[in-house]
User: Fold these one by one.
Assistant:
Number 1:
Amino acid sequence: MQIPSGNPSDPISIMYPGHNSSKMCNPDTTHRIYFEKSHEMKQLEDESVDLVVTSPPYPMISMWDDLFTSMSPEIGLQLNTENGWIAFDMMHTELDKTWGELYRVMRNGGLVCINVGDATRKVGNEFALYSSHSRITELMLQHGFHALTGILWRKPTNSPNKFMGSGMLPAGAYITLEHEHILVFRKGGKRVFATEKERENRRKSSYFWEERNRWFSDIWQDLKGASQILDPEGPRKRSAAFPIELPFRLINMFSVKGDTVLDPFLGTGTTSVAALMSQRCSIGYEMDEKLSGIIHERITNSGSISNAYLMDRVLKHREFVSNQQELGKQFKYHNDHLGVPVKERSEQYIELNLVKKVSPIEPGRHYTTIYEPVKPLPGRR
């Protein structure tokens, strides 16, 4: 297995077509960004999206107060007059405009994954928990989505100042809030792979047995939060980006190669990069056009990062196999594409492809990616 040489952002002479929502974009992918609100995604056809992975601004987290106020000035007035619960409701009214639009653009059987954190905040003399995960669940159900089992993402901090309240004195201290929610919803019934071509692509999109065991747990404790610091002189001093592993997992868990992944709150572009790494197309909506430079840099530099990440997946699997064999475990199947033993029949068909070139068609707004097969790792069967 080797990483292709050359700069992954070098332009190519061939203009690849844009995404056709009626077809898979596999084997090459397109990635589009629209700098506008996602309340009305007029560029997207009905039932054209296979998966949503997103993390909206968190209501009642102070870093997002100005953004919500820009959506509705009344929110700022309610905060200034210490009407926390009214402000909370109004913030969710703004987010709900996007949730309703998601139902239109999602295919039947498509899934929506929303990473959101609840907020603890003192407004006036009242300290309270503002439960955004329950509010979003209620609103998504009203739009017609079905709720599936979600994930608790536990992200503890070692800060000595994380405890709130009266210290060691009873009845006045508050429990620390060290987790976020990954809510999972589906439109309609279970997705159907009707043709042999679709079923073959699904098999190629499989993941390793040990990844399944880790990813499909309802508590994730092995993901650290991403750095929140951006350029202090830049358009936004802090980001709320999740780590790349989070959307990467969800995209590989709930979609297949060539699917279209939407993030209606794109931020610095993490979901687009994870989709590119996973050989999926992506569409992102972001209100702040000043982030286009950061998004451009991340996407154009994603080739080498993606290839190193995929190499690491295979090497970790080789390590897993070696440890299991030392314990006397046998592996009945073999993946010839990757040159590795595997535990289950479906793993035989896993195909991973390296990024060969990422090409900016319109920097900050439109990119195409072409891939090449991984070369099997040397080693015995």
Number 2:
Amino acid sequence: MIMKRRTILTFLAAFLLVPFLNAQDASTKEIKLEDLQVPNSPAFILLDVAPTAIEKPATAKAFTTSILNSVAENNGIPQNYGLEFTPFWFIKHPNFNAFKYYGIHYEAKGKSTRRVFAGLRMAGVSFALVNNKESKDSMLVKTSNLSLGLRSTILKVISNQDLRDIVRNNDSLIARLGKATRDRGKIDAKLDIVKDSLSVVNKRIDTETDTSKLRALIAEKRKLVKRSIILAAESDDLLNNTSVDTSIIRFENTIKEILARKPLFAVDGAVALNWAFDNSNFKSNYFDRFGAWLTMDLSLPLSKKNAAEKKNYINLYVVGRYLSGRSLDETDSLVRQDVLDSGGKIELEIARFSLSGEYLYRLNMTNSAQNSFRASAMVKFKIMESLYITGAYGKNFGDKNNVIAQVGINWGFGSGLEYVVAGKK
């Protein structure tokens, strides 16, 4: 009977201590990044088929797809498809904290400095398939285009307020998580003492032959098992409470909102190239276009009070672009030409809705008679998280087939790794 009780107590203690032994570290928190952008592909922009020729510098989702359709062509059947992916988000980064994401080097005593080139790690690779019609030797030729693009934020500058806010809130979160960890550590230390005592008692039970002493040892073991169960439960409660602690949740939400803010100033760089296939014939393929461009963006929040209200912006863009290709001059698409595009864009963002207008002037360095411009307006609406619908209308480059009338859908997909670790410096 005594041996049976001894076995039951030993099994009960081991079973109930398993949650404690496998408990997770409560000193850090994973914060999911929200409002990551779903941009137009540089491969679309290269061929002048994107709703906008001036794309904002931004951190993109792990995977983005786009469908564009000209309202005036194709009987409503989309002919332009693109996708873009950000390799960084497909690899787990356990030490990627809020400071690294924001381009901040955290120093001692709360001091920090900006790392303006932090956005380079978020480079995106894009592909696009575009079908159009071109005039060649007085004949209308159907051309399929396969484009490849690379984009990255080269430089990113955050405001002083954003810098102070992210440091202050992350420090507050560290302090709160640290207190919970210390409190749990005290309980765990008591539990270790109880476990050591329980081990000693078990050894004595195994060797004790005196019945009265054995009963006393078993009674002591019951108390130790009960005490260990209580301490393990208290430790688990502290761990679980970090998920519902209102202070921790408040700091997490504030950090999430701060990370969704736009940088004050950013410079985006992109390169793209294109192969064309006439009449869907592979043997007719030729290298058609190459482009490289820089986009500068100044984002001014309409409200400066707190993080939660920084969702409305006026964005000012300036772009400079170099293109070299065979299909830039509509009068003779077989002649390779070099052009320089320069211009700007103004954009108003109000919550889910944005309205923008842009203008680009094209300087044809090969044939000055072919200088042209592009002017258009675009509306964009966020239907739901990572799903956008766009519409654009205006004049494209050139004097033929130059009406911009497009409807597009952009949506992004996450890899599940788009998060930062808060609570680390």
Number 3:
Amino acid sequence: MTVPIETEFKLTLAPEHASQLRQHPYLSAITSAKPTRRKLYSVYYDTPQFDLRRAGLALRLRRECGKWTQTLKSEGVVSVGLHQRPEWETPIRNQNIDFTILGATPYKKIFRAKKIQLALGPIFVTDFWRTTTILTPTSAGIVELCVDRGKIIAGHATEMISEIELELRSGLPLTLFTIALELLDTIPLRPDPMSKAQRGYDLAVGTPKLPVKFDNVALGAHISVGEIYKKIAFACLGQLQTNENGMLAGNDIEYLHQMRVAIRRLRALISLFSHAIPQTIPDSELEDLKWLSDKLGSARDWGVVTQQQLPDLELAFPDHPGIRFLGNYCRERCDSVNSDVKEIVLSSRYSRLLVKLAAWLYTDSWADQSGDKTYLLNTPIKNIADSVITKLEKKIEKLGMDRFNFDATQRHRLRIAVKKLRYALDYLSVLYPKKRAQSYLQALQSLQEVLGKLNDITTMNNLLSEIKNTSLDLEETQQIVCGWQTHKEQILLQELDGALERFYRLRPLV
């Protein structure tokens, strides 16, 4: 039986920009029918233990124009703002779950269980107005442009809905990317990886979302280089997006750090597989990736100084005017760069970058070339994994040979090489004996952590060297900071020597 797949592209729309959407010349040119407006009221059901959510399902009953529809959706694939998921939608007589219909889906075992049937109840509600416009961007493509305005209600908690859904009725999914990019030319929209169901569950549960680390994708020895490249790249973009709202709220520097890690992993992936991928990311997107990485890096650096390094100094010298000035200056500077980053994440340039990267990956345009590189692209990852690991190991060995005479620049190069090997092993460890790969990865993580702390010391010294103040003589303050940092650096250099020795003992992995 063919499983029906819903394909749509979601974008958040600030209410103040709704008029820009209505007047957009591109939409006017491809609109084929007068917009319609209707009220949609949906009730989402689950057990008190969220059994359906744990199974990757969302069940809703929706009322529209006095008629009810039952919809079951299962987990699908989200690519930045493109959502593709199996969907079973059926008209029903009233607001009662029809278990006979659900019993005919692939999840019949769940819905035929009496325990589940008796426990299902309303969890949250969505109540919104939808304005729908039919678009015909190509002769073979039909797209529904839906503008949804309303709210999600879970108990006493509410959250606003203001979003655009571009739902594909016929044609290719690339059409949705094209429309999204046209809209982003003039309207500050944001691609949204969250469905209404996900937002409703988060509201119902009520617990704040923690910073999200990279979620390793499931791989096998026979997966091709091209497949792993695509999966990992989308996972990096997913990590970036899922930390956006936490970063915008500004409560924890870790959200910003994880966004930076996501970009770093993506750029490392591009470098790791550059010999096997026929076409690299277009220059304009590479330039924007570097721009984003630099901006996130600057904000993260000031955050580390103010939240992780200065507090110890301020505790040790509570009454020193220079240290007090330093603390105030750094916090003001941190607030300033954080504001800059928030503006960047809310900008069209940032959103366009995500959509263009997703479109580039989704359409496989990077695989469009014949020759040796295409062969590597299609070969199983296990055939090139050893050479990738060995090449990085040799680079680390070479960089670490003269570690007793390292300067900050050499340590930075070593840190980048260690990071690339760590990321590569994150992706490829399934190809090696489990215990050995775990020990090797732990040694890499320890090495990366020490090098990161040493880099933070260098970063703090560089940032503080920019500070100028005419009303205070900061020479004594600089001496205090220098002595403090030198003491920490000496301890860390000893740890670095030990971490390198532990890594060398485990090398080579292959």
Number 4:
Amino acid sequence: MKSLLKKIGLNRQHQSGFRVFRLKPVNRPAGRVLISMGSLVYSELRDGLPIRTLHPAAWKNWNLARTFLDLGFQIDAAPSDAQPLFAGKSFDVVIDVRSNLQHLSEVLASHGTRIMFPQFCHWALHNGGQLQRYQNLLLRSGIALQPSRLISYTDSVECADRIVTPGSAFSTRGFSHTGAAIYHINQAPPNATMQFVKRDFDSARKHFLWISGSGAVHKGLDLLLEAFSQRPELHLHICGDISSEQPFTRAFDHLLRERTNVHLHGWMDTQTESWLELCRRCAFVVLHSASEVTATSPIAGMYTGMIPIVNEGADQATMDFGCLLRQATVGELLDALDRMSSASTQELEQQSQASFDHAAHRYTQSGFMLSLRSAMCQALGISREPEWDLMDRPGAVPNRLPVIDDVTREYAG
């Protein structure tokens, strides 16, 4: 075992921040849980640092752990590439978020109930949708780029006994074939301000916001840039660090920097006054993604009353407002831009309020936490949910921290 660990470079991983952390309940553990979702958040919590808000993963990771702590379980939290460490080990519950469950099923002596808590769609939907976008870009515009967000081909979803997901109809299609019980929970962005913003729709109707992380083609930015190049009277505001995707920015430099109706804001903290001011200028939030598990970026806009223009791949819940795109074409986008920007002020005001009300009801942080706890109890056949009084806010140190031990060397032998 030690030779295997040395071969995979455990010492190098350990020095670069690789850790396995153990979270202990107050009383004698009711069982052992392995969470394969990363462990950096626990290193930082142990050092007294607040939960990061840059990406929702850290906050969700902690809330997942807290759910099982409140159920009386002991938790080992590990990075998703740590499966060799667990050879011969036993757990009552194993939770994975991406592509590790198959490997863990093969190396663990006993794995109990295996739960997939997916961050992405099934690889066939995710990769297939993304590759189609790159093919369309090549055939439509003669631009050949390499995919940047492909995920591993594994049978991790098929290995799951239960699936707990914040996804809606689009992403659920990639899980229903497994026969595993599927439990739906509410989605929530932990890093956005929920505050309805009043707008002057005579001006705001001309302004559209795209906000997203990496994967510009996957998220449809190429389509938007080509569409807005044909609508100079309309404005596209881009929030995201697209400068890190140099092949994309080089290919689209003429549309990114030479068009007066395209505005680059870079990464923006969605909890600031500058974010709210930008939201006040924009009537619409747009996402045309190849695949998501209920994307949180449109929700951040809806938190302020922006009207969503999304496609099926964005995986939003059914809405009777906004615009649903069904094709990955510039033509359909142009039709949507024209139709939405020419709507009456009264209609836009009504849709803006409906958007905010929908997000405030369906996509709250407390709703995510409560539905997560309920789903995990159902998945494990636990009839009585633990009491829950205080929610741990993103960007803060949790109210009640458990004992957190670094047990990396225990697994390293």
